[in-house]
Design brief:
Elements lengths: L4 H9 L5 H14 L4 H28 L20 H8 L2 H4 L14 H8 L2
Length: 122
């Protein structure tokens, strides 16, 4: 589906051009599911909100300078035999967030505090 040039222009003017990314798929879903116009519009707007949230997260991560791609699977626990793996994997569950518990990671330079924090952030 190629939206009309007028629709492209209006979406850009309203700063909603991200809707164009999912318009064809959502239009097909609306037709197949015989959705009401308001349901179709709600799906498009939900996609736009999700796209913007993802874009904001990406910008925050870029500003933070996190080394992306760090995972617990790539962490070399053998270099720190005294490190309690169970505690680290428990952090990765995010349970501490629900329990409103603060986390403090301390240690010498180069032992992996940043990699662990990046890996457990989800």
């Amino acid at each position: 589906m190629n939206p009309s040039p007028e629709l492209n222009s209006i979406l850009k003017q309203l700063r909603l051009s991200g809707i164009l990314d999912s318009l064809e798929q959502r239009n097909r879903q609306a037709i197949d599911g015989q959705l009401a116009y308001t349901e179709f519009l709600a799906m498009l707007l939900h996609d736009e909100v999700a796209r913007r949230d993802q874009k904001k997260l990406g910008a925050r991560l870029a500003r933070a300078g996190f080394a992306l791609g760090k995972t617990l699977e790539s962490f070399n626990f053998d270099l720190l035999p005294k490190l309690n793996r169970a505690h680290i994997h428990d952090l990765a569950t995010g349970r501490y967030i629900d329990e409103k518990v603060c986390i403090l990671m301390v240690g010498q330079t180069g032992v992996g505090k940043s990699q662990v924090s990046i890996a457990v952030r989800g």
